[in-house]
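Work Package 3 (structural annotation) set out to generate three-dimensional models for the target panel prioritized at the project kickoff. During this period the team completed the workflow that converts sequence records into discrete structure tokens, so that structures can be stored uniformly alongside our sequence database. As a representative example, we reproduce one entry of 397 residues exactly as it appears in the project archive.
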Amino acid sequence: MNMISRRLAMTTALASSVVGRRLAAADPIKIGMPLALTGPLGQVGEQMRRGAELWKRQQNAKGGLIGRPIEILIADTGGDPATCVRKAQEFVERDGCRLLFGMTLSSEALAVVPKLAEWHAIFLSSDNGDGRLTGESFVPNFFRSNISGPMGARAVSLYLREAPYKNFYAIGMDYAWGRNSVAVFEGEMKRANKPFLGAVFSPTGTKDFSTYITRIRQSGADALYVVLAGDDYGAFLAQAKQYRLGDKVQLLTEVVDMAVMRAVGDASVGLIGSTRYSSAIDTPLNKEFVALWLKEYGNPPDNNEGDQWQACQVLGDAITRAGTTDLEPLKAALTTVKLDSIKGKIAMRECDHQVIQPGFMVKVVKDEGSAAPSAQVIATFPGEKTAPACRQMTYDD
């Protein structure tokens, strides 16, 4: 190494040391994440955790945000709303944390949002789909960077306007998100004059779907709308393959979760659905993100990993422009977020704090010689087409 190279190396090391000392001396930006890390939706919570922690590492390596390091506090809720409220309150009152991510289930989010004003806290959703969170249950301290359940159902319904299927049935998880999404899909089918023959709802944690599959087969439907997640999703797809349900009906879904698809393998091939995020989205920023994720974890980023990354970008943009994490300036900055994301151009809608973003439809395929299925983007709809009117969950056209 020559003298110039040695001096450059010493200068870089000194600068990194100085940045590290400054970050260590600054008050951290604390973000609380009460997550379902165990239970039927534990894998969804793990995806959210990985997305947030990679962002934290990347951002802190660049000097943090507004000269402060990022610290993420994580607690397992098991998917229980009462536990989620308690864990979130502990973050606020014990740890002085006024920024919240996480809350894997919509039922958890719905339990927490009435407390946000009392806690002087902000919750930015990266996962919760229940339309009521930006509808009848909206509170000013709640923001959603992911698409809602109605937006996912809308993307499917727009795709089906040109599809050959005539009669529809649905299966959903028997809690807030599942029932809300099925209701929106039913309304969309009726507006399109396509017969909706009925729906069944399975309790979270269902392992045996045989009776549900029998009812679906007997319904006379030629397409089935699936609103399931986590272990339930995988169990249903595996059993649907076993009972050859796909020979009778086309399986459609609101969320294509590739972790589940990889787990069930060939049982997922042919599934068509909307997706909140896909590594197959063709944008420059997504290609950069996928490359970063592959280097870090060895697999392409999945549905909730990409959506958590987008939520982090939204929060980081707002904190940077506000220059503070104080409640009111940060809320004002969040309402005006407008940036290029891994999904394309996105913007926060001020009236209900919903990020307007493209809606994607994908098909699960398996290339010859490939060991695992992958997603192929088959349609993209602008956010203005998939988002309902402000604080609404249904559509007029």
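The chain has a mean pLDDT of 93.
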